[in-house]
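Supplementary Text 2. Reproducibility record for the structural model of the 95-residue chain.

All settings were left at their defaults, and a single model was retained for analysis rather than an ensemble. We include the record here because the model underlies the residue-level annotations in Supplementary Table 4.
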Amino acid sequence: MRRLDRTGRLQLIDFATPGFSEQECGLSCEQLSAVIRARWADGRVIEGVDVFRAMWTAVGWGRLASISRWSWFDRLLVRGYAWFAAHRLRLTGRG
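Retained model, structure tokens:
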């Protein structure tokens, strides 16, 4: 996403980096590691597949975000992401 964000609309923060502050974020590392989350400038927090849709829209892939809301595609994405989130550390060699 960082490479695709040519207009600088995304501010990506890795909670595993030194200096990350749970207090400043308002979410614990445990909460953040369970499912992807994003916070809008106004403080609202979204999670899961909605984060990907927001990122796709921000980088110019709004059509993909729209298609991903089709009921059958939404169900597939939600289930697929839930499985991935539960296994991502092992799948990425970090667990």
